[in-house]
């Protein structure tokens, strides 16, 4: 970082001018992130240099991210690059006293993400965040507060079916790194569903163990997973189910949280119905005789005596969630505003995805406190079998 006097705007370096990097650059250029400017852009693809020169002619461009970091043109960076590179680039930035915002997922395996988190801990004066834009979704913010406030009681079960990630074969055929173990580190779990894995544990807590049935190349000609079904165990009888896929053309997005005093049902990540029981379910059960049950089943019992319902929906402005995370990250740098998503939180979703993969590979239930070296060894076996990419350490 240079010794330039502080300003009201953070100079952001965008590493990777692909779909995400281009979107963030446009948000900043269009003024959606008023406390941030584009400081520099880096991409190894020569064609991106022409794009950057045309759209952002006054912004320095580098064909190497290290050159960008050493250029003195940025105060912070965002890593919109393949998943394996996020920890490496995050550490490189922080080591140069440059603030780091990593894209999701934070990495591919917990061992490398733990190294990033450990290094970030040595730089507490720097801002370290992750682009969990769904944590900036007002609907999920509200639902998290409802759960934390005990408004539906203790969670008994959660279910999330998120299969509206349909991708045709042509999507996977775009490049040789896509949908490979060595290029992406997995399929739907690391590419499409990290936001839901994060929200699931953010709202419902981290499970103790998972048992997974995962299909690899089930409906697409790929090596990695395109369908996943997970049973999570939280202890004390509390369970969760997570289902995701990339071959469901119609698709479903339905998230349910059942508590002992209510229930939340979210459709399409847009509308939530919150039902609050007038008393804990067991108390209602104990108080009702068979006449009451018959009245309930025949529609003669006023349901208002049992529960109330609230529908929650917010206007969704395209780009507001992502640009809001960028603005929040800049505010954290400028005045210490708390981060919406601390970078250290990124390891939680990675650990959950790793445990799901490991369970499917072993055909057994796996603790979230699994052996990181065992996971990495099995991942490297799959990378070596592809014969395209080097093993990871």
Describe this entry's structure for a reader:
- With 393 residues, the protein is an alpha/beta fold.
- 35% of the residues lie in helices and 23% in strands.
- The chain is built from 13 helices and 15 strands.
- The chain has helices at 19-29, 46-55, 65-69, 85-95, 110-121, 138-148, 169-172, 194-204, 281-287, 290-297, 320-335, 346-362, 372-386, and strands at 10-15, 36-42, 61-62, 76-79, 99-102, 128-130, 155-162, 209-216, 225-235, 238-245, 253-259, 262-267, 271-277, 307-313, 366-367.
- The strands form two sheets. A nine-stranded mixed beta sheet has the order 14-13-12-11-7-10-9-8-15. A six-stranded parallel beta sheet has the order 3-2-1-4-5-6, sandwiched between helices.
- The longest helix has 17 residues, at 346-362.
- The chain is globular.
List strands and helices in order, with pairings.
Elements: E1 10-15, H1 19-29, E2 36-42, H2 46-55, E3 61-62, H3 65-69, E4 76-79, H4 85-95, E5 99-102, H5 110-121, E6 128-130, H6 138-148, E7 155-162, H7 169-172, H8 194-204, E8 209-216, E9 225-235, E10 238-245, E11 253-259, E12 262-267, E13 271-277, H9 281-287, H10 290-297, E14 307-313, H11 320-335, H12 346-362, E15 366-367, H13 372-386
Parallel strand pairs: 1-2, 1-4, 2-3, 4-5, 5-6, 7-10
Antiparallel strand pairs: 7-11, 8-9, 8-15, 9-10, 11-12, 12-13, 13-14
């Amino acid at each position: 970082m240079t010794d330039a006097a502080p300003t009201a705007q953070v100079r952001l370096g965008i590493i990777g001018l692909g779909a995400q990097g281009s979107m963030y650059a446009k948000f900043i250029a269009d003024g959606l992130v008023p406390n941030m400017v584009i400081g520099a852009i880096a991409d190894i693809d020569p064609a991106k240099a022409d794009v950057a020169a045309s759209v952002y002619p006054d912004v320095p461009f580098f064909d190497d991210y290290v050159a960008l970091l050493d250029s003195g043109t940025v105060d912070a960076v965002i890593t919109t690059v393949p998943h394996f590179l996020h920890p490496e680039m995050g550490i490189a930035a922080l080591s140069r006293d440059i603030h780091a915002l990593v894209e999701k997922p934070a990495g591919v395996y917990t061992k490398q993400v733990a190294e990033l988190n450990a290094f970030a801990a040595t730089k507490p004066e720097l801002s370290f965040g992750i682009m969990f834009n769904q944590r900036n979704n007002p609907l999920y913010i509200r639902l998290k507060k409802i759960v934390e406030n005990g408004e539906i009681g203790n969670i008994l079960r959660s279910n999330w079916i998120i299969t509206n990630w349909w991708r045709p074969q042509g999507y996977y055929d775009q490049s040789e790194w896509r949908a490979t173990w060595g290029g992406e580190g997995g399929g739907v779990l690391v590419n499409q569903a990290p936001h839901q894995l994060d929200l699931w544990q953010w709202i419902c807590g981290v499970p103790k163990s998972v048992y997974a049935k995962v299909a690899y190349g089930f409906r697409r000609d790929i090596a990695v997973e395109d369908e996943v079904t997970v049973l999570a165990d939280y202890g004390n009888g509390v369970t969760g189910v997570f289902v995701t896929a990339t071959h469901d053309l119609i698709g479903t997005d339905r998230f349910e949280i059942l508590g002992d005093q209510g229930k939340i049902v979210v459709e399409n990540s847009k509308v939530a119905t919150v039902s609050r029981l007038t008393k804990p379910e067991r108390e209602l059960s104990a108080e009702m005789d068979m006449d009451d049950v018959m009245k309930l089943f025949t529609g003669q019992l006023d349901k208002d005596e049992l529960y109330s319902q609230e529908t929650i929906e917010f206007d969704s402005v395209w780009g507001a969630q992502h640009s809001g995370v960028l603005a929040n990250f800049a505010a954290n740098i400028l005045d210490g505003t708390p981060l919406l998503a601390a970078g250290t939180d990124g390891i939680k979703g990675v650990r959950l995805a790793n445990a799901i993969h490991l369970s499917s590979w072993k055909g057994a239930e796996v603790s979230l406190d699994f052996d990181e070296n065992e996971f990495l060894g099995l991942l490297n076996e799959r990378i070596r079998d592809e014969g395209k990419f080097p093993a990871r350490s």
